[in-house]
User: Which sequence fits this backbone?
């Protein structure tokens, strides 16, 4: 009887250890900003996520997919609360999210305390998340916010003739990284950044900020998104502002270009950089746009997918590709799955995406300008695209660390680094 009991105990322990591998269900956690100033981005991220799962028949590697949804408000505390619930209470196998920069840094750190789970970034794009002490179970299939600005500084200097600019952006890690990208390219080309202003995320009254914007510049880089962007554009027009603008990526995303009111008209002609272009004629992109449009009635979506919808769609497809490669095996702390995920090459709608040694996306950056589309709506028209953009551009990770992580004052405006 004793030998039988020991054998049963060993068998039970073995079954428990391989429970995830034996399970017929893959449990996914979804996390995005469904509250606060970036709500529109989060809602479209959910559309992209849901479209991907529907396309897969709610199955991955032959197993049913169960989803637990959670919301944050773009603050790290709210993202951590949601992540803890998903991981520690709901028991998800894989968490996809979050959306905002500071949230991404927080979840990267949190992932280290749960090495048996896999965290796939939503679309949070602060550089620090994959440069500073990266986590072995945190993967990012979107470029960081500086990669999105690759080539924009050079473009506005050489093609637009801008020599002096000011910047206005929200005071947290994602806009820091966007300003980092524009400053590096613009200043290396010979341009001068004469003023940098920062406002809290969720700012509603921009009157004092607008009054302090310098007049003696060729253009203003505006790194605002969501409700903040709409509020600024409305108040800037009311104040008679008419400076040329350079857009942060989410200033001219469909979440702003499709907003109500006339304020968005101020964005016509605005150059920017980002992970997609609304009018790109690539067949995979056109297929994705049609799938997005066909998945929801026109009043329940944007004319074309936002960058958030595209990113969450890509995340689901990357996870599925890795699960298929290992037959859905999540045993041994998901070791085989993570090894496969690190090697995934995603034939994404916005260009091929691979990961570097820090599990950070190498992808495509599009330089675009806002124009009126054929149906009267505003779109980002492609100017050029560069494929295979790495984090830091031509600089090594060590050089990035030497310059310093993006902040209010970093990088300095210099012609050489």
Assistant:
């Amino acid at each position: 009887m004793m030998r039988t009991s020991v054998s049963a105990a060993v068998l039970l322990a073995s079954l428990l250890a391989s429970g995830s591998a034996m399970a017929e269900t893959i449990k996914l956690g979804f996390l995005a900003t469904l509250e606060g100033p970036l709500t529109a981005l989060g809602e479209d991220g959910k559309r992209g996520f849901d479209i991907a799962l529907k396309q897969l028949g709610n199955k991955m590697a032959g197993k049913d997919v169960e989803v637990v949804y959670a919301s944050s408000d773009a603050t790290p505390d709210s993202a951590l609360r949601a992540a803890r619930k998903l991981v520690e209470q709901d028991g998800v196998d894989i968490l996809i999210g979050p959306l905002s920069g500071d949230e991404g840094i927080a979840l990267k750190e949190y992932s280290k305390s749960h090495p048996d789970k896999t965290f796939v970034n939503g679309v949070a794009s602060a550089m620090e998340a994959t440069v500073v002490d990266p986590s072995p179970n945190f993967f990012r299939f979107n470029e960081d916010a500086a990669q999105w600005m690759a080539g924009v500084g050079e473009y506005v200097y050489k093609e637009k003739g801008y020599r002096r600019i000011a910047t206005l952006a929200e005071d947290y890690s994602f806009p820091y990284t966007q300003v980092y990208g524009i400053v590096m390219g613009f200043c290396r080309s010979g341009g001068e950044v004469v003023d940098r202003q920062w406002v809290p995320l969720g700012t509603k009254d921009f009157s004092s900020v607008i009054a302090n914007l310098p007049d003696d510049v060729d253009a203003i880089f505006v790194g605002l998104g969501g409700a903040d962007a709409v509020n600024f554009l409305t108040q800037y027009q009311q104040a008679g502002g008419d400076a040329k603008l350079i857009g942060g990526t989410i200033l001219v995303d469909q979440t702003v270009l499709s907003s109500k009111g006339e304020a968005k008209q101020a964005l016509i002609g605005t150059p920017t950089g980002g992970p997609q272009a609304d009018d790109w004629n690539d067949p995979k992109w056109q297929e994705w746009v049609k799938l997005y449009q066909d998945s929801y009635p026109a009043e329940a979506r944007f004319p074309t997918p936002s960058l958030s919808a595209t990113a969450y769609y890509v995340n689901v497809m990357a996870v599925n590709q890795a699960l298929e490669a290992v037959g859905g095996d999540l045993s041994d702390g998901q070791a085989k799955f993570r090894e496969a995920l690190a090697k995934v090459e995603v034939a994404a709608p916005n260009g091929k995406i691979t990961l570097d040694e820090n599990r950070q996306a190498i992808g495509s950056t599009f330089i675009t300008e806002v124009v009126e589309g054929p149906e009267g709506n505003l779109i980002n028209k492609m100017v050029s695209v560069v494929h295979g953009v790495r984090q830091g551009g031509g600089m090594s990770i060590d050089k990035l660390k030497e310059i310093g992580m993006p902040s209010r004052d970093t990088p300095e405006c210099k012609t050489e680094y």
In short: The chain has a mean pLDDT of 94.
